[in-house]
Amino acid sequence: MIESESNKSIDLSIKELVKSARTAQKKYELFNQDKVDAIVRDIGKFVYDNAEPLAKMAVDETEMGSFEDKILKNKSKARVIWNNLKDKKSRGVIGEDSESNLVYVAKPMGVVAAVTPVTNPIVTPMCNGMFALKTGNAVIFAAHPKAQKCAEFLTQEFMKIVKSHDGPDNLIQVVTKGSVEKTQELMQSVDVVVATGGGAMVKSAYSSGKPSFGVGAGNVPVIIDRNIDLKEAVEKIIDGASFDHGIICSHEQFVFAPEENFDKTIELFTNSGKVWFTDDQSQIKKLRDVVFQDGNLNKDVVGKSASDVGKLAGVEVPDTSRLILLPADGSGTQDVLAKEKLCPVIAIVPYKTFEDAVSMAKSNLLVEGAGHSAALHSNNDQNIEKAGLELPISRLVVNQPSSTSAGGSLTNGFAPTTTLGCGSWGGNSISENLDYKHLMNVSRIGKIIPDKKVPTDEEIWS
Predict the structure, then answer these.
(1) Which of 29, 103, 137, 454 has the fewest CB atoms below 10 angstroms from its CB?
(2) CATH of region 9-215+431-445, choose from 2.102.10.10, 3.30.750.24, 3.40.605.10, 3.40.50.2000
């Protein structure tokens, strides 16, 4: 069993933290690839090996999410991120392009500020810490106040790993007694910012004057196409939408089902034994009103179980239910249920044509979640391409549970991460999953290309 030593933390000023980080980083950037990889591997392995007590620590402190699912999340994220990082070059010469006669040299950015959210207090600092160290940087965590103990404990344990590999003191640090003001000062003082959290924090990161990587809001619409295994699709949606009590930004929020299969789809949801459904308008109103207050997400439902959300609404939902399914009045602005719900509540509506489904999914995204993700269960390549072309998203998750796949998995090509960029739609600088490569500078050594034929002006303009 692991125990926190957070009461031993020293409250250093931001200036002192950054100064210490710069000293450590200058020593660390001399480490070769093997030494760097040994440290990064052991950080991931620590979270993997201690998945259960770390999950308990996260639930106890944040009072959000599912203990069992957080165990799975700790293991799966540690596994998939290290699997992606272990063979990648990130120090010194990392590649050559013989055709263009370029040599690529990786160099660190310096000190990384990693602002971490209350929703993922273990895997996000693990992930961003692994990325920062993989590329020769120092990192300073700034945690949400309700996840401070988790951040301080991880920092202590990660530094034990650094020291076991003869790494420098203060390579990994954490802001103590955190506040908005301290986090803003940190972001203005470092070399690069990774901000995973609420919209206000991300906006603040982009206003810091430093290179920043933030994320936009999620609000994943999921379309069920025709001519598929409907039962399999429903099972995957349940797994995704209910995972960690719906706290993950990439979890399925709103289901679009073919009208001729609408009743059957609902039946498959309810027959799973994991989903509570009602078409009683008074109960729907109670749940709608408790999830959204004055049109805004109620923080008291975030990461709570389906039965706890029901209790807050005065609706009896069995403890065995992992998910609440509600028929919506429409998409986009027609029903507030079309917005992001960071709890195990999802909405469903029927559609006539696939074009209608894509149009309604787009209307949801334009209300909230543009640039993030959408999900589709389909065997029709034309429809898959249509959704990918028309939806304002950075990733379309096909035939997978979105919440556990959009951030990368062992069976898809998305970069494994906990920070999902949303492009210009979401006010972000990247429209892909944050990866280690975003936290390194690359110098290009360019030589003359031997025997390169220079085109004439006539050839250029022909």
Answers:
(1) 454
(2) 3.40.605.10
